[in-house]
Each structure stands twice: as structure tokens, then as C-alpha cells.
Amino acid sequence: MEMNSVVEPVAKKQNPTKLALVDAAERSILKNGYKAMSFRDLAEEVGIKSASVHYHFPTKGDLVAQVMRRYREDFAERLTLPKKKRSAAQKALNKFIDGFKAQVVDQDNMSICTILMAEKSLLEEEAKAEVAAFYDLKLEWLSTVVSYMSQEWITSEDAHSYASQILASLHGASVLVKATGNPELFEHAVAPWRDLSNRF
């Protein structure tokens, strides 16, 4: 399964103003959410006229889609597949879990995807598609890693089912920690996945 199959590369050499707008938009979403983000505020931050924002990104949906596309591609570059061995696959999964914990739980942050999903009803279709593509990327990687753990043949449907459960556990655990203020609950929730390879 090729991990790059869901990634459509964005040109590395971008217009500096366009890149600055994407940076500003990402910061705005993380700070205040999607609804509060305005082209006027972005233009002021970047130092251009509001009409110039529309030149680079005709709609808010176009801009947010670009933010998520870059986010997905950056994530994909860091997401490498392990060797097709049980131990290597388990190590890779644990590293994935640790990375999620470090970014979301330990820093008491909400990911940009979580923020956007909270306002999904307001998103344009192109932005929704990019968010979905990001989760598809993670599910595809997790499915492949799970399949490497199985000593016997495992169906793609079963691997995907495990991947869905793992991802749901991570996100659910992060919400539980945020709600209770008890960071230990994260490890309680994800413990079954720490030794998944031993269950096959």
C-alpha cells in the first residue's frame, strides 16, 4: 500500500504573499477558530489590501483547503512505514501514539483538524475534502502498520477496523484528558494498542 497515494503535492516554490496568507490563516484558525477568521484581518497581518487576499484565494474555502493540504503533506513527509516485521510495526505504532500525545495532550492543544471539525457545518466542500483526506492518510498508514503485525494473513477490512479503533481511541482519550484534567487517562485508554502485536 503506497502511503503517497492520497497525497497531491503542492509546489514547494510558492508566492511569498500566498505563503504568508496560509501561515496567517493557520494561526488564526488555531487561535480563534474557522468562523472568526476574516480576510480583512489576514490582509492586515500580512500587510496587503483585502482585495489582494481574494486574488490569491477567491474564497475562504480555497484558503482553508490550502492550509489543510499543506498540513497533510507536511504530516505525510514525516510518516514513514516500518519494516514488515511485528516488532518494527509495534515500535512505529507506539511512536505514532507518543507523537499524538506530545502534540495534543502534553501541550493541551487542539489540532487544526479537530477545530475545523467542530465547525464542519460552516466549511466549504473543498475544505471538508482536505480534512477527510488527512484522516484517510492516517487510517491508511495505521492499516498498513497493523497488517505488518499479523503473523498470518489479515484482511484489509480487519486492518482498517483496527486502524479506526486506534485513531478513535487517541482522539477520545485526548478529549477525556482535557475534560478531566487527568493526563493518566490517556495511557489507560491507549494501553491495548501498545502491545497490539502480541494479540495476533
UniProtKB/TrEMBL annotation:
This is TetR/AcrR family transcriptional regulator. Keywords: DNA-binding, Transcription, Transcription regulation. Coiled coil: none annotated. Residues 38-57 bind DNA. Gene3D superfamilies: Tetracycline Repressor, domain 2. Pfam families: TetR_C_13_2, TetR_N. Residues 15-75 form the HTH tetR-type domain.
